Amino acid sequence: MARTSSTPVLHHNNPLFTLNSKPSHSLFFFKSSFLYSNSLSSSNFSPPIQLHLLKQSRNSLCAPIARVSTAPVEYAPPAPEFDFDKEIARLRALREALASCGTLVEKLRTIDSDSRVKSFFKSWRNDFGGVSLSDCDLYLLKCVVAAGQEHVLGEFGAELANGEIEIGRSYIKNALYALAEMIESWDVDGGSRGHGLKDEEKAALKSLLKMLGELEQFYDCIGGIIGYQATVLELLAQSTHEGQTINWSEQAGMLLKCQFVEIHSPSVLDLSEDIEYASQAALWGIEGLPVLGEIYPLGGSADRLGLVDPETGECLPAAMLPYCGRTLLEGLIRDLQAREFLYFKLYGEQCITPVAIMTSSAKNNHGHITYLCERFGWFGRGRSSFQIFEQPLVPAVTAEDGQWVVTRPFEPVCKPGGHGVIWKLAHDKGVFKWFQSHGRKGATVRQISNVVAATDLTLLALAGIGLRQGKKLGFASCKRNSGATEGINVLLEKKNLDGNWAYGLSCIEYTEFDKFGITAGPLSPSGSLQADFPANTNILYVDLPSAELIGSSKSESSLPGMVLNVKKPITYMDQFGMKHCVSGGRLECTMQNIADNFANTYSSRCHKGVEDGLDTFIVYNERRKVTSSAKKRRRHGKSLHQTPDGSLLDIMRNAYDILSHCEITIPKVQGNEEYVNSGPPYLILLHPALGPLWEVTRQKNNVVTVIHLDY
Predict the structure, then answer these.
(1) ω before 692 within 30° of 0 (cis)?
(2) How do residues 418-471 score in pLDDT, each as one tens digit?
(3) Which of 105, 338, 541, 708 has the fewest C-beta atoms lying within 10 Å of its C-beta?
(4) What are the DSSP E strand ranges found in 568-700?
């Protein structure tokens, strides 16, 4: 083990990849002067001038003369206040009407009755900009218009029946965009290209229709496109009440559809205290390996990691991050092979665990992961031991009024809809049936960015208890870092509308703390609930038949934990090369909240000890043996938490702990500040097949001592 240089090991700055952040500027030329702006916010333009664009006739054969008139801003009508309640009521009514339709013809007849659709499609039929549309395609576009998102259709969306531009909140912004689109539409001879679509626009329309088709089909359990937008607005409307004085228990009760709800600190099985039981549980996990599967939700966009291929400039998914000499995906398979090798050494039989991987098209995630598996020959496990299934993308929306964010005509900004879609998607794609064909009863779930999840016995004990005791869901948990962007595990106590009491272990995401009256900072005089609860790590054991029952339910419960996190900015580049950053988010589901469907019901209220009889459970261990993530790029002067550098430090500290018990003397890893300034004192990367249980590794003391230490 050679001593490293004095520079911290920044694996995400590996020469194979770079982090690019080039400034982008856009110029609007107008005669001899130009307007310059980094964004198109109307606040950047102080002169009180409004531009009104005259509508051009679609049937004109000659090039029209561009006319621009000006008027003082005070004469412009103010932007109307968005009425959430009115729009939600309209969408709900439309959703119910569409749900009662049995055929596409009936759905078209119903959606044609919507006032927005009537106005927009008054002069359009199945020919859309020179593109012939099927009835299904036309229905999807009508759903977009009915959802109030006609601006997605570009110049078509800007022309309503009265010929006025109604998109957006800023008249000046609309005028400038429309002016730029008008100039762009002229050919070199000064003529307009009319309303026929260019080849690239036709391709964009085709891509849009594909996304809309997937959105309509996958979210059918909540009403397709119309239901998606209604749910977005409902969650946005809830967020507007967060700052108001409201009883959190009443609000949580409304969210969970019950009379009463209380949150309790859960009882956990602490593996660090009961060593004997922990070892027994891990042995159960090893014995059960032939009936266990592995699930990796890898569809996230990993925007915070900022991984870029320096040769192509292509943004890369987290699975491609080089980490300790291999990609993160290789590390997950390596950990699994170590458990299989231990099973072979104990029982003399080879066990190959089937692996299901959920991907997405974000950053070509699906293509990169498939290529990686093919490149390594499916890691020597055979193609048949892998099932790769792709989750649909969903449109991002603004925090102000839920409008879809659009980069250019027919191209809304789309992101993965969260890892919680995995249960319904696994049913839709036949993944549960595939596991069943391999004789699997349960599965362990872990995320790509958590590099220590398989450390020691946590993962094996989690699966062992779940299998042995017939549980439906299990969480691996640990102490929560104060202020961290991670959820908490809780015991929910609910009084249902029928009068029965329901109890179950669950998770509350950090984005939802306000709704449950949970303070976001360290312990305060008024009391902070965070300090009493263990961290949610998204390491799960799941009973496959139970999960399939939820995923196939064709109801809202198949998309657990729907949230709309609008606390992170959405950055995108528009069609004119101008960079924008807006507050917004997208509808996301959380896979761990499938636990909300596994609550146990009692006729009367229970007291202490109720966790022992629940279908859900929590195992608890030291944080460094449970979670340390490489999910975001570390910035100068910022915390190491959840960065590749910070997770490497935890790996070194774990190595120190295990080798110290093997009577090997090595320097102790010092504090975070010294690590940042000087780098690690050594690099010790033990092959997981030495264990992976530390108890097994320590028995190989003679193997470990031959490792040369140079520090």
Answers:
(1) yes
(2) 999 999 999 999 999 999 999 999 999 999 999 999 999 999 999 999 999 999
(3) 708
(4) 569-573, 579-585, 587-588, 600-602, 616-620
